[in-house]
Amino acid sequence: MFTEIATNPKYEKLLISTGNILNVLDNAIPLRKSHEELLDSLKLCSECASGRVDDQIEFRESDGQVLRANAELKQKITENARNEISIGVKLFMNKNSKECIKEAANALMSILNVDYVDNVVLAYHPNQYHTKISPGTPDVTAAALQHQSELKWSQSANDSDLNDLKELWFCLEDFALQKQINQLGIADLDTEALQLLCQSARVQPVIAQINLAACCIVPPTLKEFCTQRDIQLLTHSDPEVLLTDENFILPNYTVDWSLRYQVHVRCRGVLTAKGYLLGARKCLASDKVKE
């Protein structure tokens, strides 16, 4: 069925939901990296579609959605009252697009069937290296970041890139102001870029993530700024690009965005649901090969 999607004109745009992946992926791989987990999740969707795995998968041609175990996901989320769970999200943007930000946020609320999520962390790298990622790559994060000794987001970006980031942030702020996102966070900004974002933000970030593969020691200036602004400074091990076009399950599609959500029971801190959403579109003839 997945191969048929590529030739179906109703799937010009594609939205894939992996459903809750807890207890369905191979737990014998405890140190699976996030990009490997997403690739395995997409493989699971493909196996469900081909009938090799006995699991429910739904194809909605009207809006290009592919949903695995959607009913089970919603049931898992509603096992506890909404105020008893915390839903955290990390959104990876492969391109600068305000429409894609809105698409991702709306899809998240709709598929999880919730009115709000507790936090969303934005990851946007305008000059990221599109390294081909495969499960056998030993350390993609370090390779993609080329062993940088410190955070250099603003040094590799220009004024236009920063403005693009601000526009993406502006879109997320709209959801925060509408009480659909309780807290906003940002990933991988150095001190200068974070300061500039905060200067123009209507909704201040309360989370700042840094990748220790790119920054083995937290820069004192960044730590001081986050302390002054009451921003929680956290570390992560995600690659800049969670999924490249080359590693997507379907050829001739380009990945616009992907996100990971995690649902925890507040009082116990138990992870009760986890999954990925991904938005992609068919490549136009002019998009196909650009060296």
UniProtKB/TrEMBL annotation:
<dbReference type="InterPro" id="IPR023210">
    <property type="entry name" value="NADP_OxRdtase_dom"/>
</dbReference>
<dbReference type="GO" id="GO:0006750">
    <property type="term" value="P:glutathione biosynthetic process"/>
</dbReference>
<dbReference type="InterPro" id="IPR032963">
    <property type="entry name" value="Gclm"/>
</dbReference>
<protein>
    <recommendedName>
        <fullName>GCS light chain</fullName>
    </recommendedName>
</protein>
<dbReference type="GO" id="GO:0030234">
    <property type="term" value="F:enzyme regulator activity"/>
</dbReference>
<dbReference type="InterPro" id="IPR036812">
    <property type="entry name" value="NAD(P)_OxRdtase_dom_sf"/>
</dbReference>
<dbReference type="Pfam" id="PF00248">
    <property type="entry name" value="Aldo_ket_red"/>
</dbReference>
<feature type="domain" description="NADP-dependent oxidoreductase">
    <location>
        <begin position="76"/>
        <end position="237"/>
    </location>
</feature>
<comment type="pathway">
    <text>Sulfur metabolism; glutathione biosynthesis; glutathione from L-cysteine and L-glutamate: step 1/2.</text>
</comment>
<dbReference type="GO" id="GO:0017109">
    <property type="term" value="C:glutamate-cysteine ligase complex"/>
</dbReference>
<dbReference type="GO" id="GO:0035226">
    <property type="term" value="F:glutamate-cysteine ligase catalytic subunit binding"/>
</dbReference>
<keyword id="KW-0317">Glutathione biosynthesis</keyword>
<comment type="subunit">
    <text>Heterodimer of a catalytic heavy chain and a regulatory light chain.</text>
</comment>
<comment type="similarity">
    <text>Belongs to the aldo/keto reductase family. Glutamate--cysteine ligase light chain subfamily.</text>
</comment>
